[in-house]
Amino acid sequence: MSFYFTKYEDRVPEPPLPHSVSRELLWQYLAVINLTLGAWYIWWRWTSSLNYDALWYAVPLAIAETGAYIGLCFFTFNLWKVEDTPQKTPPTKLSEIVDYEPQEDRPIKVDMFFPTYDEDPELVRLSLLDAKNVSYPGPIDIEIHVLDDGGRDDMKQVADEEGVNYITREGNIGFKAGNLRNAMEQTMGDIIVICDADTRPFPTILEHTMGYFTDSRVAWVQTPQWFFDLPEGETLPDSLGRYLKTPGRWVGKAVEKVIGPVRLGEDPFVNDPKMFYDVIQRRRNWCNASFCCGAGSLHRRNAVMEGALKSYAEQIDVQTVKASKKIRKITGEKNLNKGTERRLKKSIIHEEEFTPYRFHVSEDIYTSIILHSDQDRNWKSVMHPEVESKMLSPQDLLTWTIQRFKYAGGTLDIAKNDNPVFRKGMSLPQRMMYATTIWSYIGGIWNAIFLTAPLIYLFFAIAPVQSYSLDFYLHILPFLIMTELAFMVGGWGLAGYPSKASYLAFFPTNLKALWTVIKGEKISFPVTPKDRQEGNFLHLIIPQLSIIILTIVGITFAWWHYAHGSVSYDINGVLLNTFWGINNILALSGIVVAATWKPRGEK
Question: How far does the signal peptide extend, from start to end residue (predicted)?
Fold first, then answer.
């Protein structure tokens, strides 16, 4: 079996970021100063700086800055502190993970699920081989299951050859969630390990995580997803040497001596999830708000089933009330008689789907919301800090866009129809954490404004502020500088600029997802391709390319007019908007590189 990622098989993940109490205190100190400076700046923007001659431009930009500041407040809360969840010795008996005395204190049963639809069976085989190597320091029952929604003979053959259970079904209602439901109906594991077709579990995945379940309120454990096939790029001397031979290598080495190692083409799609899992998700543990991300997660079966039953009952009640109101509106009756209500409810029970995992494009986070809001059980979630599996990353911009659209659209659809911020049973910190996730996807609105705003001045010499005066710089510069300083500390040394640039460049996909949800359209369930898609992807970045070109033209236009004595432009405005525009160009250039990127050796 030869795949493009074969050469990366020996890679190992980095260890979790070490927790430092002193660094955390410094981060919290800087964060408070930063939010104070930000509030001062936003207050000044609304009360003392608006250009009343161009409110059509000044007000939207001030709204965008306010929205971004609210997002900064949420994100600061998210990163406030680290509190890893302790765990005990890995359990072996059922009595060690439940809060009742079982009739039969048998070994714990673990089901490992590998849902698949159209992935290469040989790719799935690699996942099965690694799953068979999972070890445990005690006698438990581990069963591996291939959940094939494609009903393929060659997939069944692979499962038979590897000695694992093969499960399929007629049709694929509910897609992945429906596939998981079908498998749960045919298995009896106490703990379920959810994998994707390309999830390659490490031998330690159970040994390092099962101890959390000795707390009978732990409903699921999420492990970090690690993409072991991220392009490593090439050194600057090697890259320049390919074009300029020996002189190019000399130049590259000279540059690296000044600024340090430089790798070109490294992780072009900014897929490295370390910031998300090791910083963002891990810092939600303290308030029990880290959410499930699907692959690499372990679930307590009875928690998922209990949550599903309660959610099912809630949905029936909601649909019954809605149907009752509709009937009473048509008939003019104030109340329905009990017989009619019973028949109505019975009809709705037949129509409503019962499923452990919601039939939703983001069934993982939806399950988290349902369990986190269960007031009776007070289920806990755990973000385990160590990587326990390896996966494949998107290798082209089309795949990247499909994946990001699903993430954004799924989250926004939940926010519209069953918003966790207003759902009963959530604690205030949990609501804040879910609000952080939702708000980040709404951010496409102000990102679009920030990217286009400097064009107004560059082409028309219209400023959003009364003047680019000393007062303006005294308010904005301390805030911007402190923001960078605070998050350099708060990010535990991880490079933050690639993530910020990617988030900014993500705005068209974000806006498309937001508009799709507003229109009431369903977010589709496309399977994220596991192979590199061939073709020209420049059509996917027309908005970003347009902004880059317009910004370059605008900078040239503004400086030409200023050089020729135009009284409309002043040096402060031209300089500030030039730097702003250059920052936007640099932030968007990454996605242009991603659209044209090809692995070494491809033409």
Answer: none
Structure tokens at 416: 């519209």
Is the dihedral angle over the CA atoms 278, 281, 284, 286 positive or is it negative?
A: negative
H-helix or E-strand spanning residue 266:
strand 263-266
- List every span in the chain annotated with CATH 3.90.550.10: 94-228+271-308+361-393
- Paired strand residues for 222: 297, 383
**Torsion region of 535: left, alpha or beta (phi above 0 gives left; psi -120 to 50 gives alpha):** left
Amino acid at 421: V
Give, in words, the CATH class of 94-228+271-308+361-393: alpha beta
* pLDDT (0 to 100) of residue 233: 79
Distant-in-sequence, close-in-space partners of 59: CB < 8 Å, separation ≥ 6: 50
- Structure confidence by residue, pLDDT tens digits, 361-410: 788 888 899 999 998 888 999 999 999 999 999 888 888 888 899 899 99
Which is it for strands 389-390 and 200-201: parallel, antiparallel or unpaired?
A: antiparallel
Helix, strand or coil for residue 189? Answer: coil
Task: Say how far apart CA 352 and CA 238 lie, in whole Å.
Answer: 60
Q: Which residue has the tokens 């317009």?
A: 550
Q: Structure pTM? A: 0.89
Burial class of residue 67, CB neighbours in 10 A (0-12, 13-18, 19+): middle
- N residues, the chain: 603
CB contact at 8 A, 131 and 112:
yes
C-alpha 267/C-alpha 395 separation (Å) is 9
d(CA 371, CA 387): 24
Distance CA 232, CA 554 (A): 35
Cα–Cα–Cα angle for 138, 141, 197, nearest 5°?
115
Please give the Cα distance from 420 to 264 (Å, whole number). Answer: 41
Among residues 349, 354, 297, the alpha carbon closest in space to that of 174 is found at 354
Is the pLDDT score of 223 beyond 70?
Answer: yes
What is the token pair recorded at 43?
A: 């207050």
**CB-count burial class (<10 Å; 0-12, 13-18, 19+) for 354:** middle
Please state, in angstroms and rounded to a whole number, the distance separating the CA atoms of residues 378 and 380.
Answer: 6
3-state secondary structure of 83: coil
Residues 6+ apart with CB under 8 A from 536: none
Of residues 356, 400, 351, the one with CA closest to residue 174: 356
What number of other Cβ atoms are within 10 A of residue 549's Cβ?
Answer: 11
Backbone angles phi and psi of 143, in degrees to 5? -120, 140
d(CA 598, CA 592) in angstroms, rounded, equals 12
